[in-house]
Amino acid sequence: MKHTKSIFAILVLFIFSAQATIYAGKPIPGVGIVVKKNPGTSIEKIVRTGTDGNFSIQLEEGEYSLLAPPDQLNKGVEEMIKTIDPTGNTKFEGEGIEISIKNDLIRVKGEPIKGNTYRLDKETSSIIISVPKGGAKLSGQLSWDGTVKGGNALKKGWDGSIKGPNKAIKEGGLK
């Protein structure tokens, strides 16, 4: 009986970790990132992310806002979710969109979440960058960290815990 509980606990943990691994760090293809020069509201350029979520564009010196249109983000992430959860119970809430900047000359306003990766503002789906004198090539990747809403539990890249009202598993096995 003890072995059965342990095997069951390992199986449940494996299922949760496999789901989170599929979501975490997933590149978002086909998003037209709007590059606006600050101050001002005119669209400077639009650069589309490739199938690998990567993008690249040459910019002149100045400050820019990079905006990822929420409708395009929603469509891209919802497509990823459908392949994993066809029931439609898991929903993307606009959180967890990340952008990695691959040029060290370009400065980003705000703190990185890790290395050269920054989280887009949930309300505006944007970040602000500064390009140095002489201009620079802005290149990077747009991705999603796996934050979803499913039922009453918020899931974000599996951290070893199971969140929700009925925790059936604790360290050392089943309750």
Explain what the structure shows:
The structure is a single chain. The protein has 175 residues and is an alpha+beta fold. It folds into two domains: 1-24 and 159-175, no CATH class; 27-156, no CATH class. It has two helices and 15 strands. It has helices at residues 2-23, 70-84; strands at 26-27, 32-38, 43-48, 54-59, 62-67, 90-91, 97-101, 107-108, 117-119, 126-131, 136-144, 148-150, 153-155, 169-170, 173-174. The strands form four sheets. Strands 1, 4, 7, 9 and 11 form a five-stranded antiparallel β-sheet that branches. A five-stranded antiparallel β-sheet has the order 3-2-5-10-8, with no helix packed on it. A three-stranded antiparallel β-sheet has the order 6-12-13, with no helix packed on it. Mean pLDDT is 78; it is low at 8-23, 151-155 and 157-175.
Structure, briefly:
This protein has 175 residues and is α+β, with helices and mostly antiparallel strands. It has helices at 2-23, 70-84, and strands spanning 26-27, 32-38, 43-48, 54-59, 62-67, 90-91, 97-101, 107-108, 117-119, 126-131, 136-144, 148-150, 153-155, 169-170, 173-174. The chain has two helices and 15 strands.
